[in-house]
């Protein structure tokens, strides 16, 4: 499976760095940063703010930000449309959903076959999840079963769990 990760409206630079490090470790083909997700070397920021974000991302990425392919996207819906035309399946990682879209458990034995060879995995904001305006572009959702009292994992932890299931044979 070829896996691309989308980080849309992730607030924490530390989460971005942790996800980049995990993505590099699992051989993810590319990470797309969209919305207000912090970016490495963001030319739109004042130098002192850019340096601060670079430091925060590097603190958890530990250099992976220079090893993994990172794509900055200003129009994620257009990107999703292009990917769909090229045979990619757009999949959201979310929990506690009420949607008509298919929802699969991450540990479903045939999940990789259901999703196909080219998957874009969308991760959303830490508190509210994936922005509902993206739902129309998403073909299916996957969720991570939880046994404890908490309702969700940290986005970087959830990303790591998903990447492990989707990239390891």
Layout of secondary structure:
Blueprint: E1 2-8, H1 13-25, E2 30-34, H2 47-61, E3 70-73, H3 76-85, E4 89-93, E5 103-105, H4 111-115, E6 118-123, E7 140-143, H5 155-167
Parallel strand pairs: 1-2, 1-6, 2-3, 4-6, 4-7, 5-7
Helix pairs in contact: 1-2, 1-5
Using brief descriptors, characterize the structure shown:
single chain, 169 residues, alpha/beta, Alpha/beta knot, 7-stranded parallel sheet, 7 strands, 33% helix, globular
Number of helices: 5
Distance between the termini: 9 Å
Shape: globular
CATH topology: Alpha/beta knot
Q: Main sheet?
A: 7 strands, parallel
Q: What is the residue-averaged pLDDT?
A: 95
Poorly predicted ranges: none
Strand segment tally: 7
Structural class, judged by helices and strands? alpha/beta
Number of domains: 1
**Relative helix content:** 25-40%
CATH class: Alpha Beta
**Percentage of residues in strands:** 15-25%
Query: How would you name the CATH homologous superfamily?
Result: SPOUT methyltransferase, trefoil knot domain
> H/E series, N to C?
EHEHEHEEHEEH
**Main sheet: which strands, in order across?**
3-2-1-6-4-7-5
Instruction: Give the radius of gyration.
Output: 15 Å
The appropriate CATH architecture is 3-Layer(aba) Sandwich
């Amino acid at each position: 499976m070829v896996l691309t990760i989308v980080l849309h409206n992730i607030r924490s630079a530390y989460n971005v760095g942790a996800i980049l490090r995990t993505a590099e470790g699992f051989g993810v083909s590319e990470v797309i940063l969209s919305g207000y997700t912090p970016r490495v070397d963001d030319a739109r920021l004042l130098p002192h703010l850019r340096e601060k974000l670079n430091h925060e991302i590097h603190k958890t990425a530990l250099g992976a930000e220079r090893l993994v392919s990172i794509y900055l996207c200003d129009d994620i819906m257009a990107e999703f449309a292009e990917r769909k035309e090229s045979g990619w399946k757009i999949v959201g990682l979310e929990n506690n959903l009420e949607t008509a879209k298919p929802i699969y458990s991450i540990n479903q034995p045939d999940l990789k076959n259901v999703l196909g060879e080219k998957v874009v995995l969308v991760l959303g904001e830490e508190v509210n999840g994936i922005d509902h305006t993206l739902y129309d572009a998403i073909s299916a959702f996957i969720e991570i079963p939880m046994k404890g009292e908490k309702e969700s994992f940290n986005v970087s932890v959830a990303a790591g769990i998903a990447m492990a299931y989707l990239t390891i044979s």
